[in-house]
């Protein structure tokens, strides 16, 4: 694993405009220069967590990027899947893979163009982290998922407490049930470099 300048930039993002600029640049090379080269395992971890708690479609992939989580959901036999992302360029790559029923640009820090309680579940890989989406977006996730729906999200382990995710989940106790946390490696065991041992919490729960 090389010290990828785009990965370093991603870890330092601060605003939605920062995100748009980075991912517009990164979209076409993301799958090869990042995901394959670094053995990016997080999308599969999230898909497996969703499947493990009997998650079904229709499900929305939040921060879908180039569709890595959509592909992992397909291997788990889960669908249909819709996709949203802040970056139009990343969604264009995802669209070329024919994984999603619907793709649309959206900002989780605002209101998505989705009616209340539309989905049987929601998933997200690599989006809930510093510089991308914080714990304040969890209210929007719960808005678009039906009661009884399943949610599975990855949250950068360094940010679980430091950025307020732990406290926010504690405050959601009357709106969710069955909260499960599993700490996983973000990258494969053969990966080397400054982020080789980075960890993520994979969180799953039921929207009550």
Helix and strand topology:
Elements: H1 5-11, H2 16-26, H3 30-36, H4 42-52, E1 59-62, H5 68-75, E2 81-85, H6 88-95, E3 102-105, E4 119-128, H7 138-144, E5 145-156, H8 159-162, H9 165-171, E6 176-185, E7 199-207
Parallel strand pairs: 1-2, 1-4, 2-3, 4-5
Antiparallel strand pairs: 5-7, 6-7
Helix pairs in contact: 4-5
Quick synopsis:
The protein is of the alpha/beta class and 208 residues long.
Your description of this structure?
The structure is a single chain. By secondary structure, the chain is of the alpha/beta class. It is 34% helix and 26% strand. It has a seven-stranded mixed β-sheet. β2, α6 and β3 form a beta-alpha-beta unit. α4 packs across α5. The termini are far apart. The N terminus is likely disordered.
Q: What descriptive keywords fit this protein?
A:
26% strand, 208 residues, 9 helices, 34% helix, alpha/beta, 7-stranded mixed sheet
Contiguous helical run count: 9
Shape descriptor? globular
Strand order within the widest beta sheet? 3-2-1-4-5-7-6
Q: Radius of gyration from the CA trace?
A: 16 Å
Please provide the count of β strands: 7
Instruction: List unreliable stretches of 5+ residues.
Output: 1-5
Largest sheet: 7 strands, mixed
Helix coverage percent: 25-40%
Provide the succession of SSEs: HHHHEHEHEEHEHHEE
Strand content: 25-35%
Terminal Cα separation, in Å?
42 Å
Structural class: alpha/beta
Residue-averaged pLDDT = 87
């Amino acid at each position: 694993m090389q010290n990828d300048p785009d990965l370093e930039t991603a870890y330092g993002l601060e605003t939605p405009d920062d995100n748009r600029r980075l991912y517009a640049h990164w979209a076409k090379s993301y799958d090869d220069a990042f995901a394959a080269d670094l053995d990016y395992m997080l999308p599969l971890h999230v898909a497996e967590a969703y499947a493990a708690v009997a998650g079904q479609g229709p499900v929305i992939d939040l921060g879908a990027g180039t569709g890595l989580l959509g592909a992992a959901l397909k291997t788990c036999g889960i669908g249909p899947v819709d996709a949203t992302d802040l970056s139009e360029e990343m969604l264009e790559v995802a669209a070329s893979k024919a994984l999603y029923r619907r793709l649309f640009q959206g900002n989780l820090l605002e209101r998505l163009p989705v009616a209340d309680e539309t989905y049987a579940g929601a998933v997200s890989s690599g989006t809930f982290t510093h510089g991308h989406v914080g714990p304040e977006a969890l209210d929007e996730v719960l808005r678009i998922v039906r009661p009884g729906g399943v949610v599975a999200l990855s949250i950068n382990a360094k940010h679980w407490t430091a950025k307020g995710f732990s406290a926010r989940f504690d405050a959601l106790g009357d709106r969710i049930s069955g909260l499960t946390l599993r700490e996983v490696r973000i990258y494969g065991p053969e990966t080397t470099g400054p982020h080789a041992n980075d960890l993520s919490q994979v969180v799953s729960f039921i929207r009550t």
